[in-house]
Amino acid sequence: MNNVISNRLIGGSCVCQRLYSTRSIRHPAAPQASPVILSQKDTVADRSGFHNKNNGFLSLSQHLCSARMPHRKPFSSGFGGAMNVFDRNMKRKQKNWASMLQDTVKYDYLRDEVGSRVADRVYDIARTFPLALDVGCGRNHIAAHLSKDIVERLFVTDISENVLKRKKEVEMPTHCVMADEEFLPFKENTFDLVVSSMSLHWINDLPGAFRQIQHVLKPDGVFIGAMVGGETLYELRCSLQLAELEREGGFAPHVSPYTAVTDLGNLMGRAGFTMLTVDVDEIQVHYPGMLEVMKDLQGMGESNCAWNRKSMLHRDTILAAAAIYQEMYGHEDGSVPATFEILYMIGWKPHESQAKPARRGSGSVTFGELGKLSRPTSADRSKEGQ
Predict the structure, then answer these.
(1) CA angle centred on 171, ends 53 and 225, rounded to 5°
(2) Angle CA(106)–CA(317)–CA(338) in degrees, nearest 5?
């Protein structure tokens, strides 16, 4: 367990679970990237391309395309009704505000831990990636755990200007692009690797975002991502709902809706990925109380940004929710847990060199005949050994 998280915990405990899963969907509409000017030290995205501090084009500019291209077909989910669950402009403001806190590093413990686990999955692939992309990079929570021997060059994107300005220094050459994760301003077959950590759960058009990621990957390129799952913060959700029912006679959603693990496999398959892997980690962090949970979520820039969120929470309701939280989930030492379900996904862009299933009907032995096959005798084994 990361030492920073251990110090943040009361009792220093972490519960992790792993399982495999697949299935179902979701669909919505995707806005486009909005270019802005960062500091001179940063690589900057604008409507015409990507520029460096000398106002010259990057050497990779031929691989990149404008953030707004009238001839480019939008990567919508492909379903009839579009959903618009999250206020992306509010999420940008939340992340900008959180990144300007003087003690913003104090709230990086969860992102750093998840980023390190995504980086571990990158190291599991025995190859070097000449060009990689980090979608929703935050303060380089993944890149900080990668070496230039694995990733030779890295592009990072985020919806927040302030986050990009205050990113961590990393080993490999890095180029910043301010862009909405729902609209990636890159050409097809550009990157060998795409990673993303703790960002995709705020996407409205998640199927469309997966299609864009698959589009910018080179053939045999790999996408490795992590996002918050549906069981995240169930303690906080239940406590607030019970308190509002008791004090106000009804409740509103205060925790954003998240994707279920059973959705990811089918969703990525529809986006064109092959050789899929989906697994789950459950990270449980202990806090002094419910108010500290909410304060840290705000410091992470992870406050609710759903369009149907309630703008005000009454003081009596907050106090009642804190008491319910403590009563239902509290530990003997006075601390309360907050559970974060992290969904990890790996998908590959198809290539002819990849292993493929045998043609249907090409088998020469039926399942009924498997029991009739003779086991090798000791004499057969001795012949094989000679």
Answers:
(1) 100
(2) 35
Q: Select from 24, 29, 385, 23 the least CA-distant residue to 182.
A: 29
Q: Which residues pair with 49 in a beta bridge?
A: 46
Residue entry with tokens 């094989």:
384
> What pLDDT is stored for residue 379 in this prediction?
64
Is the distance from CB of 1 to CB of 285 less than 8 angstroms?
A: no
Amino acid at position 12, single letter: G
Q: Which residue reads 């929470």 in tokens?
A: 313
Cβ atoms of 270 and 205 closer than 8 Å: no
Tokens representing 19 are 């399982």
CA angle, 10 then 15 then 328, to 5°: 65
Contact 209, 268 (CB under 8 A): no
Lookup: tokens for 141: 């929570």
By C-alpha distance, which of 231, 217, 18 is closest to 130?
217
What is the pTM for the complete model shown?
A: 0.73
Separation CA 195–CA 181 (nearest Å): 12
Instruction: Read off the pLDDT of residues 105-135 as tens digits, 9 standing for 90 and up.
Output: 999 999 999 999 999 999 999 999 999 999 9
> Given CA atoms 358, 363, 369, 371 in this order, what sign does their dihedral have?
negative
Checking if the pLDDT of 310 tops 80, the result is no
